[in-house]
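2024-03-11 09:14:02 INFO worker-7 job=invfold-0412 stage=load source=structure_tokens
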């Protein structure tokens, strides 16, 4: 006679767990989390390339219209060129350079830790240039437990994820 009681308890606990799983906040899928990590790394490397270019050019950032072409020489591993492309976009790259920072002297940018140099972009061309108007909306990435947003490379050389509505200065 204990079997119906055990079965009822089993089904009640199973349904309770299912309800909790349904109501619990959902984290980003493993693909989205990986995509954010890879893109953040790409943005950091591209920002580093801009800084290395500037170090060889009197602290001046590259001309915006050819920024990727200008920093490519700093982004090679041996004779291998590295392809910087967001895995969450189709064809194209998915990154842009801040138009306002074209040929800027990096050392004179006010608030460099809050100023974007490299950003994720809806313009998927290689040498994409612009500002906040190019940001994917909603943001391209949703790290676990966070709201969507985009990655930015800053004038101080750092790179970080910014949730939608919290974008750096351009």
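2024-03-11 09:14:09 INFO worker-7 stage=emit residues=170
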């Amino acid at each position: 006679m204990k079997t119906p009681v055990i079965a009822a308890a089993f089904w009640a606990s199973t349904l309770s767990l299912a309800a909790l799983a349904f109501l619990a906040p959902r984290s980003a899928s493993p693909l989205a989390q990986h995509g954010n990590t890879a893109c953040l790394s790409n943005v950091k490397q591209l920002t580093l390339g801009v800084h290395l270019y500037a170090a060889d050019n009197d602290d001046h950032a590259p001309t915006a219209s050819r920024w990727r072409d200008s920093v490519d020489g700093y982004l090679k591993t041996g004779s291998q060129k590295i392809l910087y492309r967001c895995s969450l976009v189709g064809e194209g790259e998915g990154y842009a350079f801040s138009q306002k920072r074209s040929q800027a002297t990096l050392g004179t940018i006010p608030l460099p830790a809050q100023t974007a140099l490299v950003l994720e972009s809806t313009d998927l061309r290689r040498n994409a240039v612009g500002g906040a108007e190019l940001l994917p909306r909603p943001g391209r990435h949703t790290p676990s437990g966070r709201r969507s947003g985009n990655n930015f490379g800053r004038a101080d050389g750092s790179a970080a994820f910014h949730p939608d509505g919290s974008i750096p200065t351009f």
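2024-03-11 09:14:09 INFO worker-7 stage=report msg="Strands lie at 76-77, 80-81, 95-98, 116-120, 129-130, 149-154, 159-163."
2024-03-11 09:14:10 INFO worker-7 job finished
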